[in-house]
Amino acid sequence: MRIGAHVDQTDPLAEAAARSAEAVQFFLADPQGWKAPKPREDADRLRAADVDLYVHAPYVINVATLNNRIRIPSRKLLLAHATAAGQLGARGLIVHGGHVNTGDDLAVGFDNWRKTFAFAADAGGFPLPVLIENTAGGDNACARRLDALARLWDALGDYEVGFCLDTCHAHAGGEELLDLVDRVKAITGRIDLVHANNSKGGFNSGQDRHDNLDGGTIDPELVVAVIRAAGAPVIVETPGGATGQSADIAFLRDQLGTGA
Ligand SMILES: [Zn+2]
Asked: What was the pLDDT predicted at 1?
């Protein structure tokens, strides 16, 4: 089981080494901005590395919204990041499930997701798996709770779609971690990646505030149980830089008996 961390995008391989990580996740541009990724000078090194790469799409992307001025650029930016991530040999592009605005019909949001995959298919398809991630907050989210996730997967039925399960988001979003993997897999059929994070916010608080595994409001053994059940690679998106994340990775390796 490959375990790694979300790291700064400047030199992801150095960050991986600093954490003894077998996988890294990073952004290819400002996560709060709309700029397309620039070619990277270390592209050859990244492609050849013995570290699994995951790319996280910018947070501003919301392909579900009924607001054209956000939805259309979101679609294009997602494809641009997928293209760039594919060129680096990344194993997946993680993108949040998104939401519609208050008063808007969530059914249209799910259909907007379908249109996003149709748009990409028209351009030749996403060059790597796109992993939709569950989110913590909001009343109109496409992937906060499993009832919405089931409707999203219904809408995307024609397409190959991956799933990234974030333990902080699930807990803060109001889904119990106990047996969560089975309930998710009953909908998605797969979990491609686990974001193993503790949560500063309480159960169903709607707060997206990550904490180190031995902190926060989640029993860390429940996070370990999720990872074990998912059988998927793991990325910690926890605070404390190399020190904090190394401790989280070491904790998981110890609990999972994966040594090193
Ligand atoms: Zn996450």
From this structure: 87
Find the 6 Cα to ligand 1 centroid distance in Å: 9
Given this model, what pLDDT does residue 259 score?
Answer: 57
Q: How far is the CA of 224 from the centre of ligand 1 (A)?
A: 16
Residue 28 CA, ligand 1 centroid: distance in Å: 16
Mean pLDDT of 54-59: 98
* 260 pLDDT more than 60: no
Instruction: Report the separation in Å between the CA atom of 241 and the middle of ligand 1, taken as the mean of its atom positions.
Output: 16
Q: Using CA atoms, how far apart are residues 87 and 46, in angstroms rounded to an integer?
A: 10
Beta carbons of 56 and 26 less than 8 angstroms apart: yes
Task: Report the pLDDT averaged over residues 219-236.
Answer: 98
CA 184 to ligand 1 center in whole angstroms: 16
8 CA distance to ligand 1 middle (Å): 15
